[in-house]
Amino acid sequence: MKCENCTKKECSKKQKNDDTQSTSVDALSSNDGSEEKNEFDTLANAKVLLSDCLACDSCMTLEEGARVFQQNQKEFFRILNLNKKCDTSKHKVLAVSLCPQSLPYFAAKFNLSVNEAAKRLCGFLKSLGVHYVFDTTIAADFSILESQREFVQRYQRRNQEEHALPMFASACPGWIRYAERVLTNLVTSHICTAKSPQQIMGSLVKGYFARQQNLSPDKIFHVVVAPCYDKKLEALREDFYTALYNSPEVDCVLTSGEIVQIMEQKNVSMKDVTEVAVDTLFDDLKEGDVVRHDGKRSDGYLEHIFKHAAKELFGMDVKEITYKALKNKDFQEVTLEKDGETVLRFAAAYGFRNIQNMVLKLKKGKFLYHFVEVLACPGGCLNGKGQAQTEDGKPDRALLAQMEEMYTAIPVRLPETNLHVQRMYQDWLEGMDSKKVQDTLHTTYSAVSQSTSSLDIKW
């Protein structure tokens, strides 16, 4: 499915510029040859090719392309090897954060339970030299809570502000990049300002955790293990960067598949790894069993926001949500009825075909929904292109079916019930309505002009 840019003349330049751009990227991403060789020198560099990338065409600059190439296993091992050298002033505290949608992949692939997969993945990473392994569920708690509050506020302002509704979810970087690079402010003004779980995790690790450990943020090298490649692009955003310490909130993103490549390089199977409990951000406290949010294939923004809005706006307790599939299984709607009137209409739109249809209706003024959970991957986050792919690059449907069954079996924990989150709002963020909450947990999205030095690049 191609984006709407493919109807524009500039896309015809793609083929003739491929060789020139490829040469430029090679030059930018290569080193001077002085880098020390090590046992992982055979690991491949990140390759970015347009047909697999979920972001829109002509959206990546040469500089971004060079930086994306650095987000691979070699960069991860560069830090590990740096920590083995005598000059301790250059050592880094290596922290890895695991996305919950990655865990069913490891569980299904290695015939483990999700809890076993989390602990063995933690054990494997620590055997390499990683100091801390975290679960990003706590970051999703913050993101969902902030998204819930923002939706209620937008709904209450809907008659005063033209762009208050609909509200679009902001957790998917493929959708965000497409919206900013291709669509206009007509669309971006509707995107929720809450940061994604990945970037809130960056704030937690380099903000809260760094302070707890009495560390400067630039002394932490933060890696995120995620199901899709677009998370690499998200980590490059300038608004997710601490200028004071010259430190990005997320230094490197590795896909689930890239972690498996490291295991294969080391000739290690998850079944042979010792289980180690996953760390938390709170001193020596360890994570218990894996939990998730409502939602069968994602972090569950639609379900949590829908139930919260029903309670806050209409005093209705919604226990179960009924999805109604429309044109296809990746476009579904949920409605709330009160006194014979539809008072809330939400939708889940997965995949670019559904996203483009949704945007077309918005531009025509025929949009009926108050909120849309938008995800670039058909099938949701479990179907990210960084995992569960066959050798020819197609989804492994049998493995995906296993992953979905495992993911839905994980117990649900409501973000409101996380006592650590409630304490952090008061002790670290200075209250739920503070300026620090806005600075730490929110950002802004707006349409940007296409760069003339754009790079057709493909994962």
Explain this structure.
The protein contains 16 helices and 13 strands. The chain is α/β, with parallel strands linked by helices. Strands 4-12-11-10-9 form a five-stranded mixed beta sheet, with helices on both faces. Strands 3-2-5-8 form a four-stranded parallel beta sheet, with helices on both faces. Residues 1-36, 46-57 and 451-459 have low confidence and may be disordered.
State which percent range the strand residues make up: 5-15%
Shape: globular
Mean pLDDT rating: 84
Helix and strand content put the structural class at alpha/beta
Secondary structure: helix percent: 25-40%
Residue runs with pLDDT of under 50 for 5 or more positions? 1-36, 46-57, 451-459
Number of helices: 16
Strand order of the largest sheet: 4-12-11-10-9
Q: Largest sheet, if any? A: 5 strands, mixed
SSE string: HEHHEHHEHEHHHEHEEEHHEEEHEHHHE
N- to C-terminal distance = 16 Å
What is the number of beta strands?
A: 13
* CA gyration radius, whole angstroms: 22 Å
